[in-house]
Structures are given as C-alpha cells and as structure tokens.
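Researcher: Please translate sequence to structure tokens.
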Amino acid sequence: MTATADDVIIDLRDTDARARVSPATLRVSICWALALVAVLNALDIFTTRVALAGGAVEANPVARALLGSGRVELLKAAVILVLGLRLGRRRPSLALHAMLWATAGVYLLTVANNIYVMARVG
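Model: Translation complete:
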C-alpha cells in the first residue's frame, strides 16, 4: 500500500480541547522549573568556585569579572527573585514554560561541565 500525503502529515493546528494544558498545571510546572533553575544556579556558582580553586580558568570574561568582584551571587539571586515575582503577576504561557525548562537544561549541562573540569584539574 502506498502512503499519501494525508497519511503522513500531522496538522499541528488542531484545536482539540483535550490537548490543552490548564493554566494551574502550567503555573505549577513553571514554578518547579524556576526552583530547579535557582538550585542549578547555586550549584553552578559552587562548582565554578571549586574548579577555579583547583586551578581551572574561567573562559567567559563577563563571568570572570563578576566572580572576581564577588557580585555573581548577588546578580544571579536578583534575576531569580525578579523572575519569581514576575511569575506571580503574569498569566502562565507555554513560551515561558519552555524557556525556563530550556534554561534549566543549560544550567544542568553547565554544572556537569564544571564537575568534569573539577575532575580534570583536581
């Protein structure tokens, strides 16, 4: 049997109500993502400082300047705080949801890289 175009094309414009995510569910998932980003930020700072103490070199000039001045913790905490306050005031969106989970993934990879560097220099 030969497949036609109608057999292989998925219409993403389908507005089936069962496929929608409730705003409450979305808000909970966004809050979990923000919490994970906050934890991973703390782990990033910790693992970066440990790696630097072991002889690693920070390649990012902006991060190097912030780490040298001791302001990186303050800046990251401020960003998380502002995001948290903003979340309470705005309607949850899939775009924000996706952005926060993608950010969590990037920070997870950053922490994993820091642990790898710590193992190499230590």
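Researcher: Any highlights?
Model: Residues 34-121 form one domain.
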